[in-house]
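An instance follows:
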Amino acid sequence: MKKIVVSTGAGVSAESGMPTYRDAGGLWENYPVMEVASDTGFARNPELIHRFYNNMRKKLTEQIKPNAAHLGLAALESDYDVRIITQNVDNLHERAGSTKVLHLHGELMKVRSVNHPERVYELPCDELTDKGLETSIRTRDQYGDGVRPHIVFFGEAVPNFEQAALLAREADVFVIIGTSLVVYPAAGLLSYVRSGVPVYYIDPKPVAVPSFVNVIAEPATRGVAELARQLRGM
């Protein structure tokens, strides 16, 4: 079974209404991104960070659903070994039915201990003092540690990148969807793809890419449908 490795960015979830870090000139809730998505921001104002991600979880669970792109990628699993590498922190790929998803930048529906980052909790969680989707500076895990969003903040290492690079090397088909290809290290995954492997790039405003890349200049929803058609013709 062919292994299709798909690298997805904000453009996939944007069609579901999921806001991105760069919306509205890089501001969320009238705060600069570095105030709500950096380790220095968390150290300076942890309550703001908790409130910000609480609001994002509420929006994700109550208002946002997987779109045709998420569903189309999940449907490919009936014919291919599909691996998703996503920069997105939402769980829309999983909710659509994709079973092998690697999150590069963390997961919105999870938190982790501030002292032991290997202790990760999926919300809601009985092992936390707050058992719902909201956390605060008063939330504690079963060991008495405070928690923080399970998000890779700007300036922090991307722990899953090595695994992502390995997947890119193993790909029989490599697909890039909904990303500007300027956010590293994710943008560097293309360099790990073996020579001769078909590469597809889906984006309504594609940036310049090498000539061997097959560009589908469409939004993710229409682009994934076209990708599926082209894959069937291979």
